[in-house]
Write a structure and sequence with these properties.
Layout lengths: L3 H5 L2 H4 L3 E5 L10 E4 L13 E6 H4 L3 H14 L3 E5 L10 H12 L5 E4 L5 H35 L4 H12 L4 E4 L4 E4 L8 H4 L4 H7 L3 E7 L2 E8 L10 H24 L2 H16 L8 H13 L7 E9 L2 E2 L8 E2 L4 H19 L4 E7 L2 E8 L5 H15 L8 E5 L6 H6 L1 H12 L11 H12 L4 H11 L8 H12 L4 H8 L3 H15 L6 H21 L3
Parallel strand pairs: 2-3, 3-4, 4-5
Antiparallel strand pairs: 1-5, 6-7, 6-9, 8-9, 10-14, 10-15, 11-12, 13-14
Helix pairs in contact: 4-5, 6-10, 7-10, 16-17, 17-22, 18-22, 19-22, 20-21
Length: 553
């Protein structure tokens, strides 16, 4: 990881005879990127963590401008400021004093460096970016190696002891596998001392926090059955951030391998799951079914474990294509086989929860990334009371499930299981449409909840809708101009406010105005006209839903 200190040591920087004016205590702060300031107004141009390069003419021509410039950098989250103020230029003699005084007034803490000789900013930028890109490539290569290492263990059917041992070898520290009650399940070689906290019956959570233990949950979705732990012996033994980051990656890959290994022992359950999936497929439509066939399907449902109930409610769970992460990390796509594992974990969790609450349930995978559910209901209610009762039952079954990673569509309840199963197709359409919503508003969606999204979803296969999309957006679709479509979508969702678009897209306002003007010209409409924006909004939603139907998961 590149820091202010490491960048100061570069030849391209040393040629500028750098002098640290302030911020010596933060020289080890990381640098994410380099930005050359060509203007004093950097609003929306930085994302945080950048090293900013500027001339004294930009940064400190006057005391007021120096103060405003430093204050703006602090607000934008800059990591440091390097100011070129050559000794050969008498007009810059006061640059250091102006910057130091301004920093004291504003309360700036990040490093500020004066370059006493002229330098080529492009050379500094290139040298730093090369180092950052090389580090990123190294991390990608390391991730690939770890993936191969643990994938090979999974393919060979390695035991959990072998997987734990491999993790310990890769991090150079003892690794412990414990269950959710902190009982040791497995440990690596030479872990005698590392196991001491478990033998003393201490509050392990407090010990882990105090000594900065590194941990990773083992399991899929919201169900974790174990945890991998690197039990560091002293608070000062957590090495550096790069090692800790690599150790987390190793534990995550080891946790995946352990999960796959555990799932591999579930073949007998897979037979039952296939039978349940076959029932949901056979009962997908009730049109033209004879009384004998209907009775046969209802008997199959009972034989597969669906208990008796007054009514049955169909629901479909759609696993989103990407897995949401913590706020500081982007969503990531599923690794090979990971989504199937999550489907299995979800189904087993639903069965455990339903059994504990004595709720009749039949759940099975209907297609990749999609789980069909039939839920038995108790007393029959009417109107809004019926929905409240249904949602309460669903909430009990889906308790402790991470709802951010999935969407649930609900159909109409029916007296017989076979009729409820026939409603899964409609529930699936609702779930897939709900999965395209950026901001979820419900835990369980019905057609009435989707409003315009729901209507367009039902009409998605109508050629007239496709013709409408072509008429409204054709100029941006041949070829597809995704940046323009994304900017247009952001503009409409911002209610036509260009300033909001500029802030969210990290663009200058003039750039947003210019790009939207080009879009107006290409489409031949005015974006100031409310009717035009409404038509474009509908067309964008219809296109989004149409793409979702092509690849619904």
């Amino acid at each position: 990881m590149q820091t202010i200190a490491s960048i100061l040591a570069l030849d391209t920087v040393m040629r500028g005879e750098p002098e640290l004016l302030l911020g010596s205590e933060r020289l080890n702060d990381p640098v994410r990127w380099v930005h050359v300031a060509g203007t004093r107004d950097l609003t929306g141009l930085l994302q945080g963590g950048e090293l900013v390069l500027a001339t004294a003419a930009i940064a400190s021509p006057t005391a007021a401008s120096a103060r405003n410039f430093l204050e703006a950098l602090a607000q934008e989250g800059a990591a440091a400021l390097f100011v070129e103020a050559p000794d050969s230029r008498p007009e810059y003699d006061d640059a250091a004093r102006l910057l130091q005084n301004a920093a004291a007034q504003v309360g700036v803490e990040f490093p500020v460096v004066q370059l006493h000789r002229e330098v080529r900013f492009v050379e500094i930028t290139q040298s730093v970016h090369e180092l950052i890109v090389a580090e990123q490539f190294s991390k990608v290569e390391r991730a690939r190696q770890l993936h191969e290492e643990f994938m090979n263990l999974s393919v060979r059917g390695a035991s959990q002891e072998d997987i734990v041992e491999a993790a310990a070898r890769l991090v150079g520290e003892p690794v412990i596998l414990e269950d959710r009650q902190h009982r040791v399940l497995s440990w690596s070689a030479n872990s005698d001392r590392a196991l001491e906290p478990w033998t003393r019956h201490e509050p392990l959570e407090e010990v882990a926090l105090e000594l900065h233990w590194i941990r990773s949950d083992v399991g899929v979705g919201g169900h974790h059955w174990a945890q991998l732990v690197i039990p560091l012996q002293e608070a000062t033994n957590h090495r550096d951030e790069e090692w800790a980051s690599d150790a987390v990656l190793v534990l995550e890959r080891a946790a995946q391998a352990l999960t796959i290994s555990r799932l591999a022992g579930r073949d007998e359950r897979a037979v039952v799951q296939r039978a349940r999936s076959a029932f949901l497929s056979d009962a997908a439509t009730t049109a033209g079914l004879s009384a004998v066939r209907r009775r046969e399907l209802n008997v199959r449902a009972q034989a597969l474990g669906l208990g008796s109930a007054q009514r049955y409610l169909p629901g479909v769970v759609v696993l989103k294509e990407e897995i949401p992460q913590a706020a500081e990390h982007p969503s990531r796509r599923y690794a090979p086989g990971e989504r199937q594992n999550q489907e299995i974990e979800l189904i087993e969790h639903l069965y455990r929860t339903a059994a504990a609450r004595r709720i009749p349930l039949l759940a099975a995978t209907t297609t990749s990334g999609q789980v069909g559910v039939l839920v038995g209901l108790g007393a029959v209610a009417e109107g809004t009371a019926a929905r409240a009762a249904e949602d309460q039952t669903l909430a009990e079954i889906f308790a402790s499930v991470d709802m951010t990673a999935l969407r649930i569509g609900v159909g109409d309840s029916a007296v017989e299981a076979v009729d409820a199963a026939a409603g899964l197709a409609a529930a699936a359409k609702v779930a897939h449409t709900a999965a395209s919503l950026i901001s979820p508003t419900h835990s369980f969606y019905r057609t009435v909840d989707l409003r315009l999204h729901g209507l367009l979803s039902q009409l998605a296969e109508d050629q007239r809708v496709a013709d409408f999309v072509e008429a409204e957006l054709g100029a941006l679709l041949h070829p597809v101009d995704e940046p323009a479509l994304e900017l247009l979508t952001a503009f409409i969702e911002a209610g036509g406010n260009r300033s909001i678009v500029a802030r969210e897209k990290f663009l200058s306002r003039p750039a947003v105005y210019a790009r939207l003007a080009r879009i107006e010209e290409r489409l031949g409409v005015s974006l100031e006209d409310a009717a035009s924006r409404t038509s474009l909004h509908v067309a964008l939603l219809a296109r989004e839903i149409s793409d979702g139907r092509t690849s619904p998961s």
